[in-house]
Backbone:
C-alpha cells in the first residue's frame, strides 16, 4: 500500500535542499527534534504511534525515475536532481518507544542526518507520526471508557480520510483496540479483522428471518446478526433468537447481534433479557452508531450490557481535533546549537542534543514529570519550567528512566520491527503506570515538563546572544 | 501511490458476499445510491469530488495473491475465495459530474452491479468520495473568502491524515485552489507545486541575511523569503529588501516574502509599504499560519495586501467536521425496489432507479431546487418534501437539467478521464450559477430537495406495505 517516494514531501524541502547542495553545505550534519505543543482532546497524555511505519519508509526511501523526471520538468537544478538519484536516508534516529505516553515539548523523535536528508524526510515524518499519534490517543481514551473487558473494533474505513484509513486502523490497535473491519489493514499489519452484516443484506431478502437464516448458513461459526433494520425489539431480536435456536439444534452457536440505531442503553438491556430468557446467554451484543469515548462511558455508566463497541468516524478522523500539532525543529548544525526565537517564550525551541528522563515513583509508576536534559547527562537533579524562570522542581533522588533510544543507525533499523501486539501491550503497560488523575477526561492533572539546569542555562545563553545581535 | 486491492473493504462486505455466493444469489443485480444527509461546515452546498479517482480504482480493482491467501487464512469459504480470483468490477455507474455542487438526499453516484461486486466496492467508494467531497467543499469556501485574485496553496501534507494527504491535495484543486506544496501529488495529478523556505534554513545560517542570499543564489527565478524568524519588520523585511535590491542589480526579481506568524493584517500592510518604498512593487506577499475561510475573510475585510494564502491543517483534515456522512444504500435488487425503514421518516431511503433534475432560472442560474425522479421521467412538474407530506413545490414550466450521467459501463469508463483543470473550471462555473444566499457562511439559504410525484407515491406505497407486514 505505502509507496512513498522521495517526492512525498513539501516542495520547500527540495528548494532548501537544492540551496544546500549548490552552496556545498548539503553534507553538513543536522539534528532535528520532533515534538508537539498541545495534548489532543483536552486530555492529559498522548500515545506515541507510527514509529515502525516511519522506520520502514525511511529504510526504503528513494527518488524513482518519475520523481526525477518531474523535478527536472519543474526547472530544478539538473545537477541537484541528478544527485537525488543516489539519495537514501543514511541518518541516525533516536526515539521514544512506540506506544509510550508522551507529553508536550519533549522530543519524541530525534533525527541526525545530513542537512539535505534531514530536510527531505521532515514532511513524511510529520505526516506519519502526527496522524497515528492522534488516532492512537483517541483509541486509548475509548479503551479507558470501555474498560478492559469490552471488545473495541475499528469500523472507520468508510468515513476515514481516504488512504489515511489504513494507518488509522493500525494506530487504533496501538491505542488499545482489538480488531478492525479494514481487511487490507488486517492483511498487512496482522490485525484481527471483524465484520458482521449491513442493512442492505436484510433488504436484499424478502424477509428479515430469511436473511438471518441465509447469513447463518454461510457463517456457522461467526454469525452476528444486525437486528435494527425494521424494528429491533419486535422483529430483529425475536428473529435472531429464532435463528439462534435453530443454530443450537444444529450444534452451532449464534455469536452475536448488533444494534446500530436507537437508544443503545435501553435496547441492549432489553435484548440481553430476551436473549437470556431464550437460553442464548452466550450470544454477545455489539453496538455501533456515532460512538466516541463519551458515549461509551455513558453507556457503561448506565450498565448497558454491550460486549463489543464498533467505532468509526470519531476514531478514524481523530475528531474533534483532526490533527496533532507536531513539529520538527532544528536543534543543531555541525554540532552548533540552533534556536528559533519567538515573541512567546514557550514557542522558542530547545537547542542541542538531548535526552528525556521520565521521573518514576517508588513503585515504578509515573511520578508526573519528564525532564529534558543534555544528551550526556545521566539524570536530572532539578528541572526548570520552559518559559517561566520562577518555576523549578527538585528531582534529586527520584528514580528516572531515559526515554530516547537509538532505533536507526546509518539509515538501517537497529532492531527487528516490534509487532503491533507487542506495541499495544507495551502501551497498555505504560498507561497502567500513569496515575488516574492524568487520565480523566475533564480537567486532567497537568503532567510537568522541564529542562535540566545545564540545558536551561545553555538555552538562556543562546537566547541572550541572539537578542543582542542588531540584525541577526 | 494508490494500490487499492480487493481487500480494501470492510470485512462485512466479504461476509455478505460469501453468503450471496453460497446461496447462489451472487449474480443477482443490485442498484446502490451514494448520497449524504448533511451539508458540511454548516454551509449551503457541497462540491462533489473524487469521481475520477474512484473510476480509476474500479477499473483496476482485483484481489491479488496476498489478498486471497489472507482470506483463506481467515477461514472464509474456499470456493468463495477461489471465485474472487476472477473478480473485477463489471458494473455500470451513473454519476453527477465531478466538481458540480451537490445537496443532501440526492443520489450523487449510482452503482448497478451484481450483489457481490456492488457490495465489495461500497467501502472504497465511500472512503474516496466522502473525504474528497469534504475537502473540496472546504477549499471552495476558502476560495469564496479569498476572492478570485488571490492565489491559494495547499500546505497540508504535514498535518494531513497520513496518506489521505495525497487525495486532499487533489480535492483542494477541485474546490478552487491553485497549487500544492505536496510534490508527489503534483507529480501524479499534474497540480502546480509551490514552496518557499522553512525557519530551519534561516537557523542553519549564522545570519538571516546570509540565508536569504544563499536562497536567492539557488532560486534566482523563484525566490520567496520567509521573514519572521527573528523579527519581521526590523530584520526579516529589511533583509529581504536588501536581497531584492541585489537581485534587481543582477537583473533578477525577488518573487515574494512569506509571513508565518504574528498579526498578518498589520504585518502585511507594513511589509507592503516597506517593499513599495524600496521599489519592490512586484514582490508578492504570502501568508500562512492556521488559516481557514474565516481568517481569510477577516484578512480581506481588513484590506490586508496578501497575494497568496498557504493553508494547511483546516484544509487537509476538513476541520471542524472531519468527515462527510455519505452513505451507500440499496435501491433495487433484480429490478425490485428496496427500502430501509427508520423511525425518523427523513432517514427512510429512496427506492428505485432514479434521475436527479436541477431546476434552473431563466438565465441558466440555479433556481434553488433538485428534484429526484424515477429514471424514466424526463422532467418534474411537482416535487414533494422527502419527509413532510404537507410540503410540495410546483416546478411546471421551469427549465431542468438531468444530473446523473452514465460514466462507466461493464466496468469500463465511458469517456477519457477529465483533467483536474477541467474539473476545477467546471466547478467554478457551477458555483457561479448558485445565488449568493446559498454561499454565505452564516445561515445560508436552504437549497430544496424533493421527490417527483411518481417516486413519492411509489415510496409511500412501499413504506405502507412494509409497515403492514407483521414481522417482515
Residues:
Amino acid at each position: 500500500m505505502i509507496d512513498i517516494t522521495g517526492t512525498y514531501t513539501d516542495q520547500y524541502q527540495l528548494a532548501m535542499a537544492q540551496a544546500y547542495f549548490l552552496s556545498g553545505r548539503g553534507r553538513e550534519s543536522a539534528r532535528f527534534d520532533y515534538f508537539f505543543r498541545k495534548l489532543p482532546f483536552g486530555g492529559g497524555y498522548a500515545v506515541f504511534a507510527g514509529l515502525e511505519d516511519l522506520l520502514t519508509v525511511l529504510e526504503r526511501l528513494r527518488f524513482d525515475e518519475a520523481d526525477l523526471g518531474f523535478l527536472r520538468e519543474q526547472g530544478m537544478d539538473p545537477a541537484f536532481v541528478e544527485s537525488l538519484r543516489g539519495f537514501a536516508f543514511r541518518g541516525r534516529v533516536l526515539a521514544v518507544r512506540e506506544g509510550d505516553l508522551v507529553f508536550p515539548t519533549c522530543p519524541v523523535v530525534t533525527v541526525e542526518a545530513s542537512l539535505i536528508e534531514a530536510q527531505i524526510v521532515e514532511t513524511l515524518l510529520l505526516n506519519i507520526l502526527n496522524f497515528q499519534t492522534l488516532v492512537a490517543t483517541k483509541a486509548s481514551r475509548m479503551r479507558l471508557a470501555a474498560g478492559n473487558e469490552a471488545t473495541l473494533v475499528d469500523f472507520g474505513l468508510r468515513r476515514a480520510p481516504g488512504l489515511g484509513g489504513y494507518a488509522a486502523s493500525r494506530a487504533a490497535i496501538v491505542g488499545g483496540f482489538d480488531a478492525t473491519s479494514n481487511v487490507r489493514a488486517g492483511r498487512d499489519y496482522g490485525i484481527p479483522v471483524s465484520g458482521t452484516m449491513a442493512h442492505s443484506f436484510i433488504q436484499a431478502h424478502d424477509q428479515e428471518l430469511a436473511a438471518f437464516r441465509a447469513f447463518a448458513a454461510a457463517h456457522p461459526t461467526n454469525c452476528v446478526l444486525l437486528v435494527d433494520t425494521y424494528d429491533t425489539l419486535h422483529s430483529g431480536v425475536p428473529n435472531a433468537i429464532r435463528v439462534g435456536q435453530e443454530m443450537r439444534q444444529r450444534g452451532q452457536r449464534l455469536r452475536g447481534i448488533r444494534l446500530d440505531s436507537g437508544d443503545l442503553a435501553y435496547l441492549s438491556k432489553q435484548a440481553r433479557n430476551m436473549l437470556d430468557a431464550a437460553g442464548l446467554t452466550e450470544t454477545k451484543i455489539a453496538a455501533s452508531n456515532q460512538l466516541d469515548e463519551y458515549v461509551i462511558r455513558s453507556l457503561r455508566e448506565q450498565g448497558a450490557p454491550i460486549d463489543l463497541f464498533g467505532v468509526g468516524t470519531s476514531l478514524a478522523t481523530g475528531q474533534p481535533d483532526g490533527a496533532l500539532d507536531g513539529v520538527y525543529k532544528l536543534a543543531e548544525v555541525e554540532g552548533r546549537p540552533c534556536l528559533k526565537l519567538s515573541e512567546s517564550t514557550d514557542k522558542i525551541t530547545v537547542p542541542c542534543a538531548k535526552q528525556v528522563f521520565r521521573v518514576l515513583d517508588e513503585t515504578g509508576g509515573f511520578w508526573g514529570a519528564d525532564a529534558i536534559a543534555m544528551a550526556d547527562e545521566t539524570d536530572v537533579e532539578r528541572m526548570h519550567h520552559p518559559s517561566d524562570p520562577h518555576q523549578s522542581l527538585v528531582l534529586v533522588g527520584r528514580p528516572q528512566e531515559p526515554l530516547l533510544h537509538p532505533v536507526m543507525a546509518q539509515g538501517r533499523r537497529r532492531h527487528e520491527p516490534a509487532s503491533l501486539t507487542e506495541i499495544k501491550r507495551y502501551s497498555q503497560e505504560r498507561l497502567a503506570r500513569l496515575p488516574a488523575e492524568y487520565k480523566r477526561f475533564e480537567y486532567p492533572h497537568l503532567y510537568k515538563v522541564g529542562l535540566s539546569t545545564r540545558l536551561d542555562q545553555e538555552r538562556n545563553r543562546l537566547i541572550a546572544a541572539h537578542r543582542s545581535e542588531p540584525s541577526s
Remarks:
- Chain A touches chain B through 112 residues (CB under 8 Å).
- The two ends of chain A are 46 Å apart (CA to CA).
